[in-house]
Recover the amino acids of this structure.
């Protein structure tokens, strides 16, 4: 029925056949122009250095700090809580008081005279008195002797598993510079952006690991976790990123060194 | 043994022996513990380099001492990990030996040194003897960290060489096992007359001298990881070809020519492979080959130029390169067999990638707003590969190109074009401490691997 109805309308002598034809022609022309433009654009522009049209795989580039470079980060060791970027206005200079002029009939108070010390008389130089050398005593020394200068490494803690062993040995006092190297290298590889910003300031995680004779870290594990899982993993990753701390000092005779390292979150700054 | 005889059963004897030797077993496995940590990173080490004490020697000792002192101070200052004590703040003493060292003097203000390098130097009988020490000023009970002795023929070059070696020892020891770069070299293209030849200099710009004398145009030098050979592109009769120069033999060595132009060679970190760009049919693609030129493999087949490959030095299993497959040149990365292609830069005009020694970063030249009248210029950037986050290192100082990492990953050498001339500059990898090394038409620097 619909087809019959349409044909009846089109059979009208003063119908819309002519405008319909013109409209179809115009639409066809527009479509043809669009296709032609696209072809020509691709033909002459697509092979140039500079089209920059292909955006698949493009990245969100963001400016970041160079935290991962093997360079020291020049942070201050602690936050200065008193420092502020908006300092208060400096106080006005105190007005200088002018001394009142003395009255014309005033009597000046005499200043106190300090007695001058007489210079000491030069003493004649006496020739230095040389002590006579002690007479040698041909007898053995018995009794209490002076404490021997024993290297303290031999007094290291025997039981490394006890809690006391955290401070075992005297590596830190003999090779403080190497402890600084450990601190510095892990600090360089600790990325604060890995820590959730909601982590409370001062949250601390303790990570323990060993340093082999060649300086490579091993057996990395969390000794005491913090309340923030992201802080725990960031500190763990910091140690795992270190290839080597450099060979252990030649004066240290053990095969490895145990390290307990803490990462304390400074808070969002 | 009498006590052992008194124990009748074998099991009890075994238990007795175990209990007897248990403390010794614990002692053998004992290790020291240290406890440290961080909350805000670590500041630079404050290091003082005392002038060395001129021990009695020949008349040339003062001149050699001046060269040694200057070179040592500059090497330590350039390392990027020290806060150097200015010479004017150092105590006016030159301790020659540990016995003459007064650490309290150096640890106190204004020097406030945490470490002190000192020693003595003497030229006697044509030989230069140097004794160098490094002391921890904060640990007076056990201060010595390093003690070294050097003996070479007395010359200015050797005074510099010994200073470089001593500086590298200090940097390695205090830098956490990362070797210093004071003994490394930089290879570059020098324009002299109408030709371009390959030249070499020390890392600090000293000792510049020509390597090749081919009388043609030579570009993009790349030294092999063992420092034995240099690969570079040279203009021959048939076009651009990759050539090899042996630093051991001091002459060019054979490398097979290929059809078409071959450019921009790059060594893998094990020295076994070489990647390059070759255009057999007018469209440059990336190829790899063995170090002797055999087993050539094409690994890219994209429409548009593919040039400037660089290997991941950590693994030798990935290649970053510059591709024009989408229009303007961009930095891409792929596995060394051509798979797993990923785009690294998101626009602009990016060229000349260089992979950092630890494999974490790419350095490259980038004009982010490329186009007529666009703001900015071509600068050096580094990108963290894992996150694709970047940072800009140079700003508004002409046109920079061809960055190359130092083997310690702390420095970058690059080419700067300013005022019509081309110069070679170096900087720390965070963009600070920029220094000019050469001037007058020098370009395309490449830092040696060691």
């Amino acid at each position: 029925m619909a087809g019959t109805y349409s044909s009846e309308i089109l059979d009208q002598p003063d119908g819309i056949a002519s405008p319909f034809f013109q409209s179809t022609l115009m639409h066809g022309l527009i479509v043809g122009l669009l296709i032609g433009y696209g072809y020509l654009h691709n033909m002459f522009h697509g092979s140039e250095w500079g089209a920059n049209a292909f955006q698949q795989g493009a990245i969100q580039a963001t400016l970041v700090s160079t935290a991962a470079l093997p360079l020291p980060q020049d942070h201050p060791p602690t936050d200065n809580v008193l420092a502020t970027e908006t300092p208060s206005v400096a106080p006005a200079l105190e007005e200088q008081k002018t001394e009142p002029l003395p009255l014309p009939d005033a009597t000046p108070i005499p200043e106190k005279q300090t007695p001058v010390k007489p210079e000491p008389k030069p003493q004649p130089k006496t020739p230095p008195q040389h002590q006579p050398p002690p007479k040698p005593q041909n007898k053995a020394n018995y009794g209490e002797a002076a404490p021997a200068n024993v290297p303290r490494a031999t007094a290291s803690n025997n039981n490394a598993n006890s809690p006391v062993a955290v401070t075992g040995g005297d590596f830190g006092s003999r090779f403080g510079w190497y402890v600084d190297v450990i601190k510095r290298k892990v600090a360089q590889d600790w990325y604060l952006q890995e820590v959730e910003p909601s982590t409370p300031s001062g949250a601390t995680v303790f990570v323990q690991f060993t340093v082999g004779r060649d300086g490579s870290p091993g057996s990395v594990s969390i000794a005491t976790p913090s309340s923030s899982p992201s802080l725990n993993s960031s500190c763990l990753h910091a140690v795992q990123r270190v290839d080597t701390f450099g060979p252990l000092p030649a004066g240290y005779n053990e095969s490895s060194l145990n390290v307990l390292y803490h990462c304390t979150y400074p808070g969002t700054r | 043994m009498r006590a052992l005889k008194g124990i009748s059963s074998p099991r009890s004897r075994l238990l007795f022996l175990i209990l007897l030797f248990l403390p010794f077993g614990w002692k053998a496995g004992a290790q020291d513990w240290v406890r440290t940590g961080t909350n805000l990173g670590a500041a630079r080490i404050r290091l003082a380099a005392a002038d060395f004490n001129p021990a009695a020697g020949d008349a040339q000792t003062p001149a050699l001492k001046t060269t040694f002192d200057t070179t040592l101070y500059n090497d330590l200052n350039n390392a990027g990990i020290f806060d150097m004590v200015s010479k004017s703040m150092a105590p006016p003493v030159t301790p020659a030996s540990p016995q003459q060292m007064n650490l309290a003097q150096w640890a106190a203000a204004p020097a406030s040194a945490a470490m002190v390098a000192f020693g003595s130097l003497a030229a006697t009988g044509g030989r230069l003897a140097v004794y160098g020490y490094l002391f921890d000023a904060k640990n007076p009970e056990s201060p010595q960290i390093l003690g070294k002795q050097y003996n070479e023929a007395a010359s200015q070059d050797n005074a510099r060489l010994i200073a470089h070696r001593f500086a590298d020892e200090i940097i390695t020891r205090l830098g956490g096992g990362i070797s210093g770069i004071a003994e490394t070299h930089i290879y570059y293209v020098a324009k002299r007359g109408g030709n371009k030849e390959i030249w070499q200099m020390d890392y600090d710009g000293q000792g510049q001298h020509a390597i090749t004398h081919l009388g043609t145009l030579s570009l993009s030098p790349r030294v092999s990881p063992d420092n034995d050979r240099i690969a570079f592109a040279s203009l021959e009769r048939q076009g651009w070809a990759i050539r090899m120069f042996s630093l051991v033999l001091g002459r060019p060595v054979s490398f097979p020519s290929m059809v078409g132009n071959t450019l921009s060679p790059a060594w893998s970190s094990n020295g076994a492979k070489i990647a390059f760009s070759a255009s057999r049919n007018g469209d440059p693609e990336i190829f790899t080959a063995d170090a002797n030129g055999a087993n050539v493999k094409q690994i890219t087949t994209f429409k548009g130029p593919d040039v400037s490959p660089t290997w991941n030095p950590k693994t030798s299993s990935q290649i970053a390169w510059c591709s024009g497959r989408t229009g303007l040149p961009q930095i891409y990365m792929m596995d060394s067999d051509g798979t797993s292609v990923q785009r690294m830069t998101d626009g602009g005009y990016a060229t000349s990638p260089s992979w950092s020694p630890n494999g974490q970063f790419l350095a490259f030249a980038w004009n982010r707003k490329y186009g007529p009248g666009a703001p900015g210029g071509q600068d050096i950037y580094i990108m963290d590969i894992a996150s694709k986050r970047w940072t800009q290192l140079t700003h508004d100082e002409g046109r920079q190109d061809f960055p190359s990492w130092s083997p310690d990953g702390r420095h970058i050498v690059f080419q700067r074009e300013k005022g019509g001339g081309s110069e070679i500059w170096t900087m720390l990898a965070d963009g600070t401490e920029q220094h000019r090394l050469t001037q007058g038409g020098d370009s395309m620097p490449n830092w040696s691997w060691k």
In short: Chain A touches chain B through 86 residues (CB under 8 Å). The two ends of chain A are 77 Å apart (CA to CA). Confidence is low (pLDDT under 50) at residues 1-7, 50-66, 75-84, 141-167 of chain A. Helices of chain A lie at 2-10, 17-45, 171-174, 176-188, 229-241.
